[in-house]
Amino acid sequence: MAPENHGNSDKPQLKVLLCSPRGFCAGVVRAIDSVEQALKRYGAPVYVRHEIVHNRYVVESLKAKGAIFVEELSEIPDDTKAPVIFSAHGVPKSIPVESRRRNFFSFDATCPLVTKVHREAEIHHKRGREIVLIGHAGHPEVVGTLGQLPDGAITLVQTVAEAEAFQPRDESKLSYVTQTTLSLDDTADIVATLKRRFPGIVAPHKEDICYATTNRQEAVKRVAPQVDALVVVGAPNSSNSRRLQEVAERAGCSYSVLVQRAAEIDWSKFEGIKTLGVTAGASAPEVLVEEILDAFAARYTLNVETVSGADESGMFFPLPRQLRDNAAA
Fold first, then answer.
1. Which of 88, 129, 259, 324 could form a disulfide with 31 if both were Cys (CB 3.0 to 4.6 A apart)?
2. What structural domains and CATH numbers belong to the chain?
């Protein structure tokens, strides 16, 4: 944590409200640990399909240790004996099928909360229900969920307007699931539209939006009205990080920005501020939060206060079975 610099200084005072929880969630920790444990146990290289999590710093750090990131399995040599890991976002069923066909030694680092959505969709399909997936087109998690079932079994709905226009095959056999990293507010509006139009639609047994997404958004909602500006540390292709920026603006913060590193900060946007909020998406490591605070400490005298919300200290997801310490190497 960046030290508070209360001493004599000509720098202007800046009160920083640091959101808690922020940064890594249990699913991200599990995914990163899966790559690191595979490297430790089997040596380099380890192939990873897609970015293990959406954070350039994390990906580059794992590359330096021997991970090779690919977008498709076709980029992996046929004769490799190296482990192949599927990212935290989940993959279509065709991917493990191809992996087995090519005799790859693979591990699935899909977040268990994403796997929960996959299983829900499968159950709905087996019960003859058409499925609406609330999510963003092209996001790896959405691609993975759509790929759990045959074409046409799931319809993607991204907006309230699309929910209004959706025409199911049979209104009496309808269900919905959601991408885990969405904004609670946006999802609520779409769900409300679907329930109004189709009162019998079957909802998830338990909320699909993950605990980490919910907790980080709630912390931002508490801080945003109290600050002049808010910085979200995260990657532009990270859905949960982008939603944090949007939530901050809706909650009353006049300026919120998503940055990956301190070098991206446009300091002209922070001239004259007295209070600053700081949070981080679920795939952003704490070292990057510290880097941001250090950058502000070089320009301001900081008074840092942590605004605490939900306690996530008990959240833990075990590694894939083959990578656990008691598993055979």
1. 88
2. 13-24+211-308 (3.40.1010.20), 28-111 (3.40.50.11270), 113-197 (3.40.1010.20)
